[in-house]
Amino acid sequence: MRPWTWTRKIPVVAYNPFLVHARRVHSYSFHVFRDVPPLRQLRRELGKSNRTVGLVPTMGALHDGHLSLVRQAAAENTDVFVSIYVNPTQFGVNEDLDSYPRTWDADMEKLERLNRELRSDQGGSVTAVFAPTTKVMYPTIPPTSEIDGHGSFVTITPLANKLEGASRPVFFRGVATVCTKLFNIATPDRVYFGQKDVQQCVVIKRLVKDLHIDTEVRIGATVRDPDGLAMSSRNAYLGSRRRAVGLVLYRALHAGELAFNSGKRTREEILDAARRVADDTLASQKALLPSERALFEVDYISLADPETLDELDVVDPNRGAILSGAVKMMPVEEPRPNEDLGVGSGTIPVRLIDNILLMPNGHRDL
Ligand code: AMP
């Protein structure tokens, strides 16, 4: 296994002198901070004038899902801080840290455009973007993705070991650690997370509660493309063939939701409905030629308690449930001439996650 080193693991973009320069010469309607003290200074000043701060943590490659969280934060606070940081400790040793999309200029343009809209609404707007280097975020020891590696980490067990954590063992340790750092740095009144990453929402709620962090966790609805696919920075890798078949996850979860809505309450009834869609879709793809099909593996489809994430045999209608799943879209086997294969030419496997809340009547949120 390769050890972490500063030189290998820091994304090139973080130290690209042209980018740093570009950040200085552009004048945005918000501050761009690379280090902690000036952000803290701004936060103190805002606090003195009774302004409120909503923090939206992101890894950049911004899309409408991220922007909807910024909008929500601007509706509920005078000032919005957006952090953009591809956090190495939440990527496993063999995961896609190096190839994770980084689109700084486009991200800044999107926030700038959104700010124009927000300012004309007279509500809050983006005041600061925090885009730290890894040396700033991990000041003492270079970050590790090894399970038993050294560092100062926050672990939220057993939540972090379930579902996504089962196949990504360091993921939630990395998420909980970087979010704790961001919460300590920005001391936001509210923090904003997307329901799309539902386990992350549950972990963050537990983190804030158990560590007595003085902030309110707000969850934004999943933003989808018109056909239902949940927006994700990683969708750029899919290409049109895998994107069309990748809808299987949402369709499967939707079938489970329909079973619940028609009065079914047992695990078997709800998950069978979902699995049938996944099995039928996979069978019909396998029947196609390699130049036409997109194969996938279902990692899990889960019916779990909304707070503990324990798997449920029966849904208690007063507590509700999270119906969630993950599928891995396999690399395209045989590309066709001029086919839209997405970033990475169809060679990169893409893991898709999605979820639907089966909540008691009147509850739309976790
Ligand atoms: P990421 O940059 O992928 O770490 O995501 C940053 C935040 O945006 C997280 O709270 C995500 O849950 C949220 N997010 C990502 N995709 C969506 C989406 N399609 N709808 C709503 N929120 C999203």
Summarize the structure.
38% of the residues lie in helices and 16% in strands.
Describe this structure in words.
The protein is 38% helix and 16% strand. It has helices spanning 6-9, 12-15, 17-25, 36-48, 64-76, 104-120, 134-137, 164-167, 171-186, 198-210, 239-246, 248-261, 267-286; strands spanning 31-33, 53-58, 79-84, 125-130, 190-194, 216-220, 296-304, 321-329, 350-358. Mean pLDDT is 92; it is low at 1-25. Helix 9 (171-186) crosses helix 10 (198-210) and helix 12 (248-261) packs antiparallel against helix 13. The strands form 2 sheets. Strands 1-4-3-2-5-6 form a 6-stranded parallel β-sheet, with helices on both faces. A 3-stranded antiparallel β-sheet has the order 7-8-9, with helices on one face. The chain is of the alpha/beta class. It is built from 13 helices and 9 strands. It folds into 2 domains: 4-220, HUPs (Rossmann fold), CATH 3.40.50.620; 233-362, Pantoate--beta-alanine Ligase, Chain: A,domain 2, CATH 3.30.1300.10. The chain is globular, with a radius of gyration of 21 Å. It binds adenosine monophosphate. The site of adenosine monophosphate (AMP) has 17 residues, from helix 5 and strand 5.
Secondary structure: elements and pairs:
Layout: H1 6-9, H2 12-15, H3 17-25, E1 31-33, H4 36-48, E2 53-58, H5 64-76, E3 79-84, H6 104-120, E4 125-130, H7 134-137, H8 164-167, H9 171-186, E5 190-194, H10 198-210, E6 216-220, H11 239-246, H12 248-261, H13 267-286, E7 296-304, E8 321-329, E9 350-358
Parallel strand pairs: 1-4, 2-3, 2-5, 3-4, 5-6
Antiparallel strand pairs: 7-8, 8-9
Helix pairs in contact: 9-10, 12-13
The structure holds adenosine monophosphate (AMP).
Residues 58-59, 65-66, 68-69, 193-194, 196-197, 220, 222-223, 230-233 line the site of adenosine monophosphate (AMP).
